[in-house]
Amino acid sequence: MTGGKKTKIIKEIIVNVDKCTGCRSCEMACSAFHSVPKYSSLNPARARIRVFMDETKDLYVPIRAGDYTQAECNGRNRYTIAGKEYSQCTFCPASCPSRDYFKEPDSGLPLKCDMCESVPPLEEPMCVQACKFDALTYMEREEVIPEEEIQRGEMEAGIASLIHKYGAKSVRDAVARATKR
Ligand code: SF4
Ligand code: SF4
């Protein structure tokens, strides 16, 4: 740490859509890793990665689950790829009320990619290990950022996790009670 700044490791998965064959091994590996107990089942509906497939255009796009959003967005882009139009929802990583993507099939709870959190840590995320076509490449890079930004990120991640567990209203009520003390 130097002068109020910290070095943060940024983890990335680089997706090369041109190399993706739509084999869906990434979905299988992710769902197996996240099943309870680990590797006890294979269910792509539980995967935190989904491969959008349009065989007519030979288009396969792996998409990792991002943050949960409570409301569907009201402004959307449209994408034209190889002469065919797709809505923004097609490639969106959010778990959202308007579609079934990235929801745990039994509970309906949102799923989010955790880059395969594990103790001890994985050398590479499971989906990257499973991809035999080099469509997914794992990379780590260092980024120097202000310490407050890291703290804010940690705080927001903590609040998001509380909201996920107890609901937004309970968290709001708890904050209101705590600030009165
Ligand atoms: S990085 Fe891990 S959690 Fe994220 S999509 Fe890939 S296998 Fe699933
Ligand atoms: S494992 Fe690789 S090639 Fe197969 S669907 Fe996933 S990203 Fe595409």
TrEMBL record:
<protein>
    <recommendedName>
        <fullName>4Fe-4S ferredoxin-type domain-containing protein</fullName>
    </recommendedName>
</protein>
<dbReference type="InterPro" id="IPR017896">
    <property type="entry name" value="4Fe4S_Fe-S-bd"/>
</dbReference>
<feature type="domain" description="4Fe-4S ferredoxin-type">
    <location>
        <begin position="11"/>
        <end position="41"/>
    </location>
</feature>
